[in-house]
Amino acid sequence: MEHRTTIVEFSERRTQAACSCGWRSAVFGATPTASCRLPTNGEPACGHLPPTPSYRSGTFSKTFFPGVRLGWAAGPVPLIARMIEAKQNSDQCAGALGQRLVEEYLRGGHLDRQLTASRALYADRCAAMLTALEVTMPGGVTWTMPTGGFFTWLTAPAGTDTTAWGRRAREARVAFVPGVPFYPDGRGQREMRLSFSRVTEQDIHEGVRRLAALLPRRTEERP
User: Fold this and answer.
1) pTM for the full model?
2) Degrees to nearest 5, angle at CA 185 with 184 and 187
């Protein structure tokens, strides 16, 4: 989705399952928001890239509703069979009611229609946030250009503490997630995650304006 480095730790059981299938290497992709990919130039998703055996997993929490607590996995049959065994041995099975709800939702074609509407909605809100950042943020501030998902990643000038910035922002009734919790080594002090999924375009512009007003201005122009 956004250009970022992701570290994924797999349990010993899943690693053994992949090895037992006779693979020396495989591509694993966890895509919680891939269904909300924004309009692009047709780049293929990770799970569609041959020839290495690939496995993809995702969740219906982002596309159906969070309380259902169900996910999905697609990959070679031997690996999926081992995953089913591991799942059944860990919690017996997921809730039957949630499974039936998702099944009917999918069989009725509702998910396909909803994804079309959701992608259009999030594309507009993403564009609104990027425009607001371009118009209001001072020099020295940079951000990612999302191709999907719900967020953009902003980097403030050196010396900025986004945790302290977040406290001031809350007083202005604006919320974001500071960058430090996303790193295991204490980095990210001048980074933050901004979400455009929930609020209206008007609120996005106002929220970004308030954030920019709390950041000390720098004289240089943004590249």
Assistant:
1) 0.70
2) 105
